Amino acid sequence: MSQAPRSICILRLSAIGDVCHAVAVVQAIQSQYPEASITWVIGKVEAMLLAELPGVEFVIFDKKQGKAAYQSLKQTFKSRKFDVLLHMQVAFRANWAARCIPAKIKIGFDKGRSKELHSLFVKQRIKAQTEPHVLEGFQNFARAIGVQCDTPSWQMPITVQHEQQAQMLLADCNDRVFVISPAASKAERNWLAQRYAQLAEHAAARGFSVVITGGPTAMEEDLAKQIIAHAQCNIINLVGKTQLKVLLGVLKQASLVLAPDTGPAHMAVTVNTPVIGLYAHSNPKRTGPYLYQDYVVEVYHKNLLEQRGKTAQQLPWGMRVKGSNLMQQITVKQVVEMFDRVVEAEKL
């Protein structure tokens, strides 16, 4: 840009993992342009996690409101015009929301990652990248406005009160806490309850207190009950007992986290807690826990080759593989070996 922007709008509505990636980029922008005002259009649930992020005005877009959500957005911004809109989501509802945000410059994804009419709602594009992680894609939005942001870092909006609530929930734990966050948004991306239970037993045998976390959905509550029923060790069940900020506090105090492709894995990254990621359907090099990609146990690449006959490098980046039983291919032995490796590497 020819001069530093004075007002910046971020458009990234969802999901939890993606907004965690975006925080690092927003804070890099704040570091280089401390005088710029930043407004972030965000989803309702995601705003609960990021509320009170320093120096950011949040405007909530509640997709459940339907057309009224767009009308509200238009009304909010009717007398404003941003220097730049960083349009960081290609979903159609986000593309349509971009129409309601006045900005001198609207920057979107490169052509290779544009879909659902994204190209119609932007005037400029970020530079194309070769095999980027989602976070690295977001970083190119910052670079497009002159920001250096090669090494991500996070200052998450967690208060002393949230951390104290987390401490109370972990009061019966020792100082080595192993958190299992077993549920992804789709059941097919979850590992088997019996295998989570075996990892819990292994961690307990190595002197860790074991905790299960999750939201108050029937699927998550049922999965937690199954894990506890199979495990021959004590497990503290926090499923449905933590708001997002308190969950962040629990993850911050944990020594190690085990999770499939789910938001809490990325939340843990923001507070520098090591994560063992379990991946079968999506490429962990694109969506894995960013700082801990070496700790991923995956069967994605072999399934992609079997289904498509080509490697990830030969196909459109980020292509998913399909199948309801793919996660069963990840063995207990593989994850136990990774657990022991991480404990040694991180000196836990």
UniProtKB/TrEMBL annotation:
<comment type="similarity">
    <text>Belongs to the glycosyltransferase 9 family.</text>
</comment>
<protein>
    <recommendedName>
        <fullName>ADP-heptose--LPS heptosyltransferase I</fullName>
    </recommendedName>
</protein>
<dbReference type="InterPro" id="IPR002201">
    <property type="entry name" value="Glyco_trans_9"/>
</dbReference>
<dbReference type="Pfam" id="PF01075">
    <property type="entry name" value="Glyco_transf_9"/>
</dbReference>
<dbReference type="GO" id="GO:0008713">
    <property type="term" value="F:ADP-heptose-lipopolysaccharide heptosyltransferase activity"/>
</dbReference>
<keyword id="KW-0328">Glycosyltransferase</keyword>
<dbReference type="GO" id="GO:0005829">
    <property type="term" value="C:cytosol"/>
</dbReference>
<dbReference type="GO" id="GO:0009244">
    <property type="term" value="P:lipopolysaccharide core region biosynthetic process"/>
</dbReference>
<keyword id="KW-0808">Transferase</keyword>
<dbReference type="InterPro" id="IPR051199">
    <property type="entry name" value="LPS_LOS_Heptosyltrfase"/>
</dbReference>
